[in-house]
Design brief:
This is DUF4867 family protein. The protein has 4 helices and 15 strands. It is of the alpha+beta class and 214 residues long.
Length: 214
């Protein structure tokens, strides 16, 4: 699989790079994530980590990124080599790897056909450390791939409640069958842990495994 830079023009289909965040706030966010997030053996995701949210400038940056909505600042950390699943939300998501680069695997929501997505459409982008990227609401994404087994810690900024517990909804229509959390629509590969946990199997094709060196 070819891995493009997030600076490549093709990235514009999937998201945006935010280059003008004040350096002092970037430093504050990096320091807070490094201090408050442990590197696990596998993968962990915590939607809201108060100590990161309250770091100098971070809460106000987060509100700016989401246009003033109520916001949560969390982190994903660990090591991963598999695609496994793809997800999307009703809003953009903001990610910043803090100390190591990572590779993000993306797809496009409109390539879902009859409720199924073919993984041959997946594209890969390398995102450098300390680079804030916006992942558009129409972009399929999931846990990034780490490089050279080093693992990663990535700040994750979202409107409040996204990726939290699945709500009880009384109307069945549209893509509600993919709902696996609050505003978390998951398409699972048959081989993925999410499929075993009850997510809808909606990925066909290869469950890509990328073991990347520098």
């Amino acid at each position: 699989m070819e891995i493009l830079s997030c600076r490549d023009p093709k990235f514009r289909e999937y998201g945006a790079v935010w280059d003008d965040i004040p350096e002092d706030i970037v430093n504050s966010l990096v320091e807070a994530v490094e201090k408050n997030v442990e590197m696990p053996e596998g993968l962990t995701y915590t939607p809201e980590i108060e100590a990161i949210h309250q770091a100098p400038g971070v809460g106000e940056l987060a509100r700016t990124l989401v246009g003033g909505l109520e916001v949560q600042v969390g982190a994903v950390a660990g090591r991963n080599t598999y695609l496994n699943s793809l997800e999307y939300h009703r809003t953009s998501e903001f990610n910043m790897p803090v100390s190591t680069d990572c590779v993000m695997l993306f797809g496009l929501q409109w390539d879902i056909r009859d409720g199924v997505y073919d993984t041959s459409n997946v594209v890969a982008f390398r995102v450098p450390a300390r680079t804030m990227v916006e992942i558009y609401a129409t972009t399929l994404h999931y846990a990034p791939i780490d490089i050279a087994g080093a693992g990663y810690k990535i700040a994750v900024i979202l409107p409040r409640c996204v990726n939290t517990e699945k709500p009880e909804l009384s109307v069945t229509c549209g893509d509600v069958g993919l709902l696996f959390g609050c505003s978390k629509y998951v398409l699972a590969h048959p081989q993925s842990p999410d499929a075993s946990a009850g997510a809808k199997v909606a990925l066909t094709g290869e469950n890509y495994c990328l073991k990347l060196s520098e």
